[in-house]
Amino acid sequence: MKLSFYQLATVLIVTSLGSCSPQQSNQEESTEEQSARPSTIELLAGNATGIHLLNFDPSNGSISKVGFLVEARSPSYFQISDDRQYVYSVNEGKDGGASSFKWNRDSSRLELLSQQPSNGDYPCYVDIDASEKMMAVGNYGTGNIAIYTINDDHQLQPPAMRQHEGSGPQPSQNGPRAHCARFKGDFMYAVDLGIDKILSYPVNGDMTVGEAKVAIAMDPGDGPRHLIFHPTKDMAFAINELSSTIVSMKANYTNGTFERIDKASTLPDDFTEKNSCADIHITPDGKFLYGSNRGHNSIAIFAVSEEGMLTSLGQEPVRGSWPRNFTLSPDGNYLIVANRRSNNIVVFKIDRATGLLAYTGNEVELEGTACLKFN
Q1: CATH number of the domain that 245 lies in?
Q2: Alpha-carbon torsion 150, 154, 156, 162, what sign?
Q3: pLDDT tens-digit profile of 98-138?
């Protein structure tokens, strides 16, 4: 049968409309959304030689080495700017320093922007404030804090210094040991392992800091090392290197003080060998907390109650030695550990319901990694 021109046109229009069904349109949108998602995210790793680039796939927890980003003197701790264009690091060692870097034009390398002395020995921690105009560095060896301003070109200016005083009962506490400096609100908090205190410095509008006061005193011999903040509540948590404990605290960000809520051991009751704690992180929902044990070579796992009480959920072996640093993936689904002495970086899956960790079998070799940060 022959179709007229008008009949043929009608058939073509109906066929065309039918081919654009809502179901197919939704499928196309879904495909576009999926293709827009990056399959891997960048993970930066610092060791004695410089900063390295790794790729991490959040869909399956796989990890791989990509290349060497920049040669630098022991960037054992660093921070990344919010726009992911700049990196600020310590240069750990005797007569230490601090550096700022920027990505080159094709984002294949980091380029040195500036370098300043830290006016102290063995700087081991760096933090930048919310405005990214101030930076603080803790000098472990000399027990002082270096406070830098950052100019519009992201270059560090010569630092102002704050010296801590005092000591503690342990052999490694024969003087101040500034191990961590964190900005939060109107204060900069300095964690000092040598004097068993966290100090708070008011931050002034002219990018200077005022006189220190004691935010909280730990138990003698605790040796506080790192400080983190709860993602949604006025709480903070400190990990104690020397006593292998974690302390939860109420935080008063108006006056820069902390009040102890709870204290818990990171070790099983039957462990009697030498151990020193290192890093600490909390999940994005604030329900679970993790701390690393060097000696027991494990990640201690805790549930955090609404009131800040800590319940130990056990310890997960790190499949290596000396977990100095670890990080959580941005989605909170993975925990990645840098085992400094066994030279491996290991990936664990986080059970979001229970907080427990499962070894994925994914790991990569990198000598002496001391810091991991997602870019």
Answers
A1: 2.130.10.10
A2: positive
A3: 999 999 999 999 999 999 999 999 999 999 999 999 999 99
